[in-house]
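User: Fold this; tokens only.

Assistant: Input:
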Amino acid sequence: MLRAAIQLKDIVSSNVTALVESAANPSKLLHNLQREIEASIIALESDKRKAEQRLADLEARRYQTQFREADWGDQAKVAMDAGDEALARQALLAREDCRQLLDNTEQNLKTAKSELESISKAVEELNIKREDVRQRSADQLAADGSDGICGSSAHSKTDKRLDKISKLQRRAEFATDDVSPSISEVAVSRDIEEMRRERAVQEELDALRGGPAPKKSARRKSK
């Protein structure tokens, strides 16, 4: 990775004019330099797509974790309302695990954003360098009396490949990493859900016990 970064820096900072003036065959030098730049752009475009997918995955993970954190807080309240402090404690511990995971995800998001910005900047700089070398190569071929067919053919192939990468990038459906709960979390959640159901049923039974049922009485009269 470090070697590739140094190579990219050397390409971007290279003095094309000085290279051409000192070259025995300027056309060949420019052609090779253009191919080297285009190969670097293709590799970086692939890295950029992967970085964008990783960023999307992390953002989805953050959303899921935030949802689970809030849900565990609600479940702790349900458990306390039912008088089960031990179960409420387990729910709060699960919420703390979510908060820790959320902190880690936020740090990973910052790193992923920084990496994507670096790659995007490198692609932009290489594209500028590519256009400069491409123009110099065309001028050199004209000066040499060449029709430039080979150069235009290579240019066409590279553009097609870059266009293909771009299309794949637009069509890509970013996969999201599921934040799967642990077995203990599932057990706690199941117990609290059962407690919630029992409370709902009990409240309805209490409501049914209180006072006469007017609607039922009205139906009896109609009969």
